[in-house]
Amino acid sequence: MIKINGENLDMNVVGADVTIHTKLTDKDDGLNHMHVGIECKNGAICIGAFGYGENSAARGHGTPIMIELYEGRWRVVAWDDINKADPKIIDMEGAREHKRVPEPA
User: Fold this and answer.
1) What is the pLDDT of residues 18-31, one digit of tens each?
2) pLDDT per residue over 36-73, tens digit each?
3) In DSSP terms, which residues pair with 65 in a beta bridge?
4) How far apart are CA 104 and CA 38, in angstroms?
5) Residue 90 domain-assigned?
6) pLDDT for position 83
7) Cα three-residue angle 14-15-18, rounded to 5 degrees
8) Would you say residue 64 lies in a domain?
9) N or C: which end of the chain has fewer CB within 10 A?
10) Residues 35, 49: contact at Cβ < 8 Å?
11) With 70 as the cut, is the pLDDT of residue 8 above it?
12) 102 within a domain of the structure (yes/no)
């Protein structure tokens, strides 16, 4: 199920390649904008923005943020420096709901 502008689209997209293009507006002043592309492909969610890329990608084709399931673990992979080939990897296991420590009563 996909929801756009609060409306559900009755589409079966499980396992399908999906591409979304949108424009982000600066949360601070509302004046700056950035064109962003989100691709669901090859078992990953890849996020790119106009003018941003990663070391191995051709100009205009980079997706410096990737979210994937790898060896059963959910992780975020980010190339935060276009001059470096190796990304930073954030393992999301610590964000699992069952790991929440209850607040003292």
Assistant:
1) 889 999 999 999 99
2) 999 998 889 999 999 999 999 999 889 999 999 999 99
3) 47, 78
4) 40
5) yes
6) 96
7) 90
8) yes
9) C
10) yes
11) no
12) no
CA dihedral 41→19→90→27, nearest 10 degrees, is 180
Q: Which domain holds residue 18?
A: 14-97
**Number of structural domains, the chain?**
1
Distance (Å, whole) CA 8 – CA 1: 7
Structure tokens at 29: 């002043």
- Enter the pTM of the model: 0.79
Gap between the Cα atoms of 40 and 12, Å rounded:
14
Look over the chain and give the mean of its residue pLDDT values, rounded to a whole number. Answer: 89
Q: Report yes or no: 77 and 66 within 8 Å, Cβ to Cβ.
A: yes
Tell whether 5 is covered by a domain. Answer: no
The encoded tokens of residue 74 equal 């959910």
Distance CA 24, CA 95 (A): 25
